[in-house]
Amino acid sequence: MAAHPLPVENGVSTRVWSASVNGKSRQIIIRDHDILLDVLRDNVGALGAKRGCDMGTCGCCSVLIDGKPKLSCMTLAVETEGCEITTVEGLADGHHLHPIQTMFSECGGSQCGFCTPGFLVVCAALLESNPSPTRKEAQDAIEGNLCRCTGYQQIVDSIMEASDIITSEERLVSTTRPASNPHPGYGG
Amino acid sequence: MASDKKEMVGYRQQPGKLDFTRPGSGGSSSISRERESDTIPESQGGDLPQPWGPHRHDDLITGRVIGKPTPLIDSKWKVTGQALYGDDIRLPGEIIGRLVRTDRHYARVLSIDASEAESLPGVLGIATGEDAPHAFGVLPVTKDEHAMAVEKVRHIGDIVACVAAEDEDTARLAANSIRIEYEDLEPIFDIKDGLKDSENPIHDRGRYHIGESNVQKRVFQRFGRVQNIEDSIASHESSWTFKGVNHGFTEPHAVVAHWDPRGRLTLYTPQQVPHYVHRALADVLEIPMHQINVYRTFVGGGFGGKSDPFPHEMCAAILARKTGRPVRITFDREEVFWTNRGRHPSKITMAIHADDEGRLSGIETDALIDGGGFASFGHVTTYYNGVLHTAPYEIGAFHYTGARVWTNKPASGAMRGHGAVNSRCAVEVGIDDISEKLGVDPIDLRLANLLPPHSATITGFRITSMGMRECLERVRAESGWDEKFRNMPLGKGIGVGCGFFISGSGLPIHWDPNKFPHATVHLKIDMDGGVTIHTGAADIGQGSDTVVAQAVAEVLGLPMDMIRIRSRESDTSPVDLGSYSSRVTFMNANAAVSAAMQIRSELISAASEITGVDEKRILIGDRRVYSKDDPSNGVSYLEALHKAQEDRGALLASGSYRTPPMGKMHKGAAAGLAPAYSFSAYVAEVDVDVETGKIKVEKVWAAHDCGKALNPLSVEGQIIGSCHMGLGQVISEEMRYGRTGNLLNPDLLGYKIPTVHEMPEVVPIIVESNDPEGPFGAKEAGEGPLLPILPAVCNAVYDAIGVRIQELPMTPDKIYRAVESTCRKGGFESPLDLPSPRLVLTSLSKTLKERGAQHSIRDKMRRLESEIGDYHNGALFGNDPETPPEELDPDWHVQVLPDEEYLEEPGLAGSAWLHTERRHRGEVE
Ligand code: FES
Ligand code: FES
User: Fold this and answer.
1) Nearest CB to A188: which of B1, B69, B88?
2) What is the pLDDT of residues B212-235, one digit of tens each?
């Protein structure tokens, strides 16, 4: 679907960009050359998408566009007209974290956490398409993301644990529940 | 809630009247359970084994969290995208700041014309060096930075001016339209040129000059008996080149400055050392420190690269003051490389000698390090390149000359493993080579030359706990070393390397006659029972907040959920020196423990008052305070708390930590002093393609002695992460400078950080040597684990193809060339015909094994017995262990200035001593 062009201002053509970000539909006036990452951070307020390099080398800006992981710093906003975009903020269901989020926290997949949003969306996409990946498949999935803190090992551990949860319904309930309990650790 | 009890709504918080399943009410049962004995140390009558003996904090163990894998306390923020880093701070009315960076290597700034920029619509403020004449720097002895260039620019990317505008596009446009006129000066790029006299030294530093040269700092140290070196039978000599390495943290620097309506400045910045920024801001802005609040945002990785007060932080504050609006400045990745502060490019020559008994009779090191344009931490780095390899081995003589020079490149600074990494690599590779020359196994050689626990190194560092031996033994066993070493086919190899690092530095950066503590922690507990921790320690992702919370939770017997931490703002946190030198766990958790102990004793006296049980017989357990003899006799935590609060309200406590006095008296004796040291040993297995020169590190067994793993999850994370960072330096990472001094790869495409595919499988092995002064026995785990990976890989590559390469990173082209020349020299047709190195053991091997076994017993006694004598380095060479050798042996040097004889034939860095010191530039003494 083509975005709606608006009049040209100062030699820059602008248009209304409509897309759904984390389940909420947005109409925003953008310039043709606006980068998706900028629109997400500055206009939508989805600060979970991080800027690490701005040139497609770190993966911190990864978001899901129609379920596929893409580098938002390498994507023009206009390209995503009408798409469904998911950033890290869109992974959890209320207090119920996505299993990959819980496991990143539990297994040390996140240290400084700056690379984490990018990894999480990539991993979520992986687990969506392949709920029980091998370690090798998990490694292949995150090859485009840099992490300077963890050495990746605990990230791959997190993916494997999350896959365990996803593939066994029962554990899903018990492991993701605590996040919905404002007082984890107390009876309940 | 699954409980079938009636849900109570609006219950009153009265002592003893609470539903015990209520959060924070004092445990899940109204009756104290016997404590699980496997969490109680043997010294306290429990079953928790303590092979390294009891610890002074044993009686504080409640079995809560210490030693259990604990997710980071802030990890839920990180995984939900709610963690706010520097660029995520968006204040209402913010404007964007942009720095004007020079394109000159070295030049005098003649004029700055900002008229065009000023006239652009949307430009709100412009500042130049004139707006901030005061110099600053992280070390008070070398303040040589300015917010923006004053007089000169010193490297490409140095800041000349800054602008603030309504939006980023305008700010960039304005920055580009500022016209600067320069007079170019002769730049220097080669580290060796820094040693020479120059017409325009890069810095004029007032009253202290080393000739007219660009030498920023020079060090000379000679310890021990030179005769020992002369008696040696085998020597290793090497000459290394190490390239500059950048921290490569994922979050580029960013800062937000805001002057509030009352005229106070709040600076939001991802910083490792908020306190030093606080000081520098006060100097530069000429306002008192109490008018500044430094707010540490989440930090997207530091590794030493965010541990200087930075010019851009000053610029943001200056622009915000000028415009009256909050100013946000965010770096491009390229700017991160201009700011740098990464590991120093270095030239290190090293000689290691061994005598006929397989003792290390001497280490001679000469290290010339390239500081780039500014001093940063360089003063310390210059020392660290030498003094941090005086352990873990006992050595007969130590001779170090080091110098740091300024060049026209982005400044080097502190990076994980500060100053120790490169020279450690050289030492460990040297020991591998020596053991080959002696015909012994390198692990045996190391095991027979270790300093014991509770000893002093040749330069007088005080070693307390020491787990080096266990680290070596564990990696040897787990890697299958004895079967593999020098036994694998061509192209496959295994190598070992060790590490030694400080756990906190003995002296604070700012000299303080008032004996300020290094770390302070405040606790506040009010009616609700939750504990608020105020600390200034900077959590940069390593998990310091978590460890401090753990320490408090443990002592008070509370779950982690009842602990909340406020560590971000200088307004509310006590001063902490920051996250560098691997000091945080050691110092901050110690401070936290001492604060928690005060609260603990108040709770115990309150409980004693209620129950009538003697205070000495009272224990704290799972949210209960009760009698040791009769656990059913006790009160809930809240009951005790509310009793203690009678007539006074919230309980407050302040705990602090300061290092004990230690070390020798010679000049520079304080550099490298630490209250504890960490040790590590790695074995790496590699696969080298002899035809293409490509290295693949297959597996690493990584043993690290962190004293006590307070949070094993984090310790393992640090070990693996360190392997990753160190691996980058060995195989691919380098800041590449072209022939004309330009940095060729200021981006993450050309600067090659290992991806998941380059990472080997790492087997983290935690060794717990139970440090007597560390919190619950803990030492550092953040930096030390990086050191051994470099030499382990280098040694493994040698084991695989029989070629030693003394230049890092060992990229395929270097290996290829080295293999080619070896083939040519050896007359081999194809690299596939190269022989793999093999080990032929000599009779010395048996001597070493025996000595290692004896020392193992000696070490065990020294750590378990309560009465032990002193042990000074030199005992292995026949000196009296109890007396510092220089007191008995007239030939034992303690020398920190070069003599005439040395100056006749100085080493490369040593030649810095050929210059005479002068008071002012141009003056001759
Ligand atoms: S910011 Fe997009 S890949 Fe680095
Ligand atoms: S957790 Fe810090 S970069 Fe990945």
Assistant:
1) B1
2) 999 999 999 999 998 989 999 999
CA distances in angstroms from B153 to A139, B97, B111, B173, listed in the order given = 45, 20, 12, 22
Atom of ligand 2 nearest to the CA of B78: 1
Quick one: which of A36, A42, A101 has its CA closest to A71?
A36
3 state SS of B765: strand
How do residues A138-178 score in pLDDT, each as one tens digit?
999 999 999 999 999 999 999 999 999 999 865 555 444 44
Q: Is residue B454 part of a domain?
A: no
How many beta-carbon pairs under 8 angstroms link A with B? 190
* Residue A186 C-beta-side C-alpha neighbours within 13 Å: 19
Hey, what domains does chain A have and what are their CATH numbers? 8-87 (3.10.20.30), 99-167 (1.10.150.120)
Give the Cβ contact number of residue A177 at 10 Å: 14
Torsion of CA B385, B388, B390, B391, to 10 degrees: -150
Cα torsion through B860, B866, B872, B875, rounded to 10? -50
Which of A97, A148, A186 lies at the smallest CB-CB distance from B250? A148
Q: Which of A57, A116, A142, A147 has most ligand 1 atoms within 8 Å of its beta carbon, as the pocket-test mutant? A: A57
Write the CATH number for B318: 3.90.1170.50
B111 inside domain? yes
Q: Are the C-beta atoms of residues B519 and B504 closer than 8 Å to each other? A: no
What is the average pLDDT across B526-543? 93
Q: Do B80 and A101 touch (CB under 8 A)?
A: yes
Closest atom of ligand 2 relative to the B541 alpha carbon = 2
Contact A52 B753 (CB under 8 A): no
This prediction's pTM = 0.94
Lookup: tokens for A167: 């593939």
- Where a domain ends, among B269, B295, B330? B330
Name B181's Cβ contacts closer than 8 Å, sequence gap at least 6: B109, B110, B111, B112, B113
Mean pLDDT of chain B: 92
Alpha-carbon torsion, ordered B1, B6, B11, B13, to 10 deg: -70
Interface pTM (ipTM) of the complex? 0.93
CA angle B9, B11, B15 (to 5 degrees): 160
Per-residue pLDDT of B430-471, as tens digits, reads 999 999 999 999 999 999 999 999 999 999 999 999 999 999
Instruction: Single out the residue in B629, B657, B685 at which a domain terminates.
Output: B657
pLDDT in the model for residue B513: 65
> What is the mean predicted confidence (pLDDT) over B849-854?
97
B910: part of which helix (H) or strand (E)?
Answer: none
Whether residue B284 lies inside any domain: the answer is: yes
Does A47 touch chain B if contact means CB atoms closer than 8 Å?
yes
Q: Is A107 helix (H, G, I), strand (E, B) or coil?
A: helix
Using an 8 Å Cβ cutoff, are B531 and B524 in contact?
yes
> Contacts of residue A153 in chain B, CB cutoff 8 Å?
720, 759, 761-762
For residue B91, what are the domain limits?
Answer: 86-185+253-330
Alpha helices (H) along B159-200: 168-176
Residue-by-residue DSSP string for B403-415: EEE--SSSPP---
Interface of B with A in 513-552 (CB under 8 A): 540-543
Binding-site residues, ligand 1, Cβ < 6 A:
A 51-54, 56-61, 71, 73
Q: Is B622 part of any domain?
A: yes
Min Cα separation B716/chain A (Å): 9
Q: Count up the domains in chain B and report the number.
A: 2
The answer to whether the Cβ–Cβ distance between B755 and A153 falls below 8 Å is no
Separation between Cα atoms, residue B552 and residue B562, nearest integer Å: 10
Span between the terminal Cα atoms of chain A, in Å: 49
Strands A24-31 and A12-21: antiparallel
List of E strands, B341-416:
346-354, 360-370, 397-405
